[in-house]
């Protein structure tokens, strides 16, 4: 949860770094004229007409670094103590949040500084997913893994909610704290992990009983490509929903960030539903396929009608979160763990983090591309962004079709 909480502030704070200042009262000493009437309160260098593009660069710097480093992170996680690996990653992730937040106090306005901090943050955040999936895979067998991992995966959405609420709480008071407090949170949890985490049941004298499974095509490549497009949609929503809600409604930055967290509530429900259906039927690819089919028209409907009313927006965000995040949650948890412990790997438990990293690393490339394109397309209208998301889900749909099992 703390990993995702520490990633969320940028999507909230970007609505404050660049917004319309016309209705705000300037502090003493600030001279307002026609050239700066709408931008006097913005944070340089995000005060120009290209602000959306520059903010998109920040997202992409983090996500591309995350995607590239992920392939190496899984290899490392399989070869050192997961306790050390996760503790180190969480503490350094806290440092990256702190470095972004102190720009507020040291009056840092260099785009290069923010990009370097984002790259550093993307690299150290890769310790999270392969590490925690490996720990879960070590401790829990394959029986009812879909529902179990669906319940456990709610930490991603809970982290987004907590991070969004913390960032939103301090947004209008001191946006530096919107980063620093989640940074302290993840560093503290890293210390707890270092003190108490046990890597495997064998480390404390326990033996995990496994159930047999039917041989099947591992499908690492197909699921990796499917996750590329699914994660593109999910992370574009994660990073740009607050900005979209603010621009399409009369709501302020703080309330927009709060409402955007409702999408993650739907994500929790979607992960549980996808996991339960997979456990009941054994058809993970079919589950992904059906949820992707439903998500495509939902994206269009939300773009057309989501801004009508706050209550309509909330209901549609919950439904959208269920079907957009359901496939993403299923692939990155239960499917990754199943593939990483598949019998074709000859019982090599050291492959679990590596397989998880390959799948999530490929998906993270899509997560990097999505927000970057959204930042560019949004300048020409949000409808184009939603067309991009719908196209991505169509492509994910086509890839998931190759993995369908026939009754």
TrEMBL record:
PROSITE patterns: MFS. Residues 1-407 form the Major facilitator superfamily (MFS) profile domain. The chain crosses the membrane at residues 54-77, 84-106, 112-135, 147-171, 177-198, 255-277, 283-305, 312-331, 351-373, 385-404. It is a multi-pass membrane protein. One of its GO terms (cellular component) is membrane. It is found in: Membrane. It comes from the Eukaryota. Coiled coil: none annotated. Pfam families: MFS_1. Keywords: Membrane, Sugar transport, Transmembrane, Transmembrane helix, Transport. Its main location: membrane. PANTHER family: MAJOR FACILITATOR SUPERFAMILY TRANSPORTER 16, ISOFORM B (PTHR43184), SUGAR PHOSPHATE EXCHANGER 3 (PTHR43184:SF12). Belongs to the major facilitator superfamily. Organophosphate:Pi antiporter (OPA) (TC 2.A.1.4) family. This is Sugar phosphate exchanger 3. It comes from Ranatra chinensis.
């Amino acid at each position: 949860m703390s990993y995702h909480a520490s990633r969320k502030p940028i999507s909230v704070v970007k609505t404050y770094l660049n917004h319309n200042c016309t209705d705000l009262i300037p502090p003493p000493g600030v001279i307002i004229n026609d050239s700066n009437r709408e931008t006097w309160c913005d944070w340089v260098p995000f005060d120009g007409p290209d602000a959306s593009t520059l903010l998109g660069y920040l997202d992409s710097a983090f996500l591309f670094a995350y995607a590239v480093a992920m392939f190496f992170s899984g290899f490392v996680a399989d070869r050192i103590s997961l306790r050390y690996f996760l503790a180190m990653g969480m503490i350094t992730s806290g440092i990256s949040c702190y470095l972004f937040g102190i720009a507020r106090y040291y009056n840092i306005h260099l785009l290069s500084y923010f990009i370097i901090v984002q790259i550093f943050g993307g690299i150290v955040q890769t310790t999270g997913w392969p590490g925690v999936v490996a720990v879960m895979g070590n401790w829990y067998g394959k029986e009812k893994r879909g529902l179990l991992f669906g319940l456990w995966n709610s930490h991603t959405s809970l982290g987004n909610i907590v991070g969004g609420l913390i960032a939103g709480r301090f947004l209008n008071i001191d946006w530096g704290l919107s980063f620093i407090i989640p940074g302290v949170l993840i560093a503290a949890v890293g210390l707890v992990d270092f003190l108490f985490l046990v890597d495997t049941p064998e480390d404390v004298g326990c033996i995990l009983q496994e159930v047999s499974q039917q041989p099947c095509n591992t499908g690492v490549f197909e699921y990796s490509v499917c996750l590329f497009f699914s994660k593109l949609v999910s992370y574009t929503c994660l990073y740009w929903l607050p900005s979209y809600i603010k621009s399409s409604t009369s709501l302020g930055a703080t309330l927009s960030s709060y409402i955007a967290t409702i999408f993650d509530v739907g994500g929790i429900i979607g992960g549980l539903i996808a996991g339960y259906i997979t456990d009941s039927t054994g058809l993970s690819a079919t589950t992904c396929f059906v949820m992707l089919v439903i998500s495509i028209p939902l994206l269009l409907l939300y773009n057309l009608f989501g801004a009508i009313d706050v209550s309509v927006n909330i209901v549609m965000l919950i439904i959208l979160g269920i079907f957009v995040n359901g496939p993403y949650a299923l692939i990155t948890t239960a499917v990754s763990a199943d593939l990483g412990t598949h019998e074709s790997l000859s019982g090599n438990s050291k492959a679990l983090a590596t397989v998880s990293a390959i799948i999530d690393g490929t998906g993270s490339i899509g997560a990097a591309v999505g927000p970057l394109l959204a930042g560019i397309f949004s300048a020409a209208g949000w409808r184009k962004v939603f067309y991009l998301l719908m196209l991505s889900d169509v492509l994910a749909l086509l890839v998931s079709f190759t993995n369908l099992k026939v009754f």
